[in-house]
Amino acid sequence: MSNKKQRLATLDTFRGIAALAVVLFHLTLHQAEAPVHFSWGVTGVDLFFIISGFVIYMTLNKTTRAVDFVFARFSRLYPVYWVAVTLTASWMLIGKYWGYSDISWGDYLANMTMFQHYFGVRDLDESYWTLIVEMLFYGLMLLAFLFNKVKNLEWYGLVLVVIQAIVHGWVSVSYPYLYTSIREGFPLINHFQLFWAGILYYKIYTEGYRLQRVAGIVLAYILTLFLFEKTGRSNLFLSWPEYIAVSTLYFGSFFLFVSQRLEWINNRITRFLGTISYSLYVIHHYFMNGVVTLLRDKLGWQFVPAAFVALMGALVLAVGITYVVEKPALNYLRLRYRS
Predict the structure, then answer these.
(1) Under DSSP, is residue 56 helix (H, G, I), strand (E, B) or coil?
(2) Which end of the chain has fewer CB atoms < 10 Å from its terminal CB, N or C?
(3) 76: left (phi > 0), else alpha (psi -120 to 50), else beta?
(4) What residue ranges do the domains of the chain occupy?
């Protein structure tokens, strides 16, 4: 592996860590019998958003046509997502028979769009809430590309971060109804600073340290801490000191990454988890809850063995989706697109 690929492999390690953190969080959530509760895993989505800012900005810097960017995102996200939604809906039908879930055709079809938030339809899997945030970020980046503003996104991003601070600081107090409408209508407003930090890390990675970039990341870090009790879900499961510690770890790790001092954490396991991270993320939550519920409540298993079976099942499913759906679909769709 070349030095450049080895350095970028750290992003896969980050993805794998973030995905596993979220999975373990959901596996032990509200489980009184769990010997350990991975509450800090709720912050895995923060790490995902920083990674996304870095990767999407890197992608746009190599893109020549807007349609190429749209197709790349579609082919990367939707085939896996459609399979995950369909499997989750199928399990929900089974759960409906057992009396612990419910689903309608409207729920299923709305979720297949990935924009169910704007249809007023629940996410079939609670993990899906982050996907609309990602999609809004992609849309914002596409607009920047169309208006030829990609090279200046570190400065336009600063404007949006200032708007974030105003919305969550002044508007939330002075106009609470408007504040709720903004958050519901444009949920990216709750997390944009993390994507912007990823963009700034990429600028440091490719162009070197500049005072304004470091200051921007520090601003994003401070705003992240400020939003602890206002956005996301971390405040429901972590204390303020715990959130500070985990956020500091994420931001600090990215500084080590862009300074090329973190390659030592990469290994076969982390690269493997990074490879299956997207499939694992979109398939794990409802599936694991269903397996634990069935084994414990219907068959009388203890939580620990039931959780182990659920975790192994989710990993096997993620591997299957990655290598049977994601990679073949990517190859096929992109080959057809190029031809």
Answers:
(1) helix
(2) C
(3) alpha
(4) 3-73+103-267
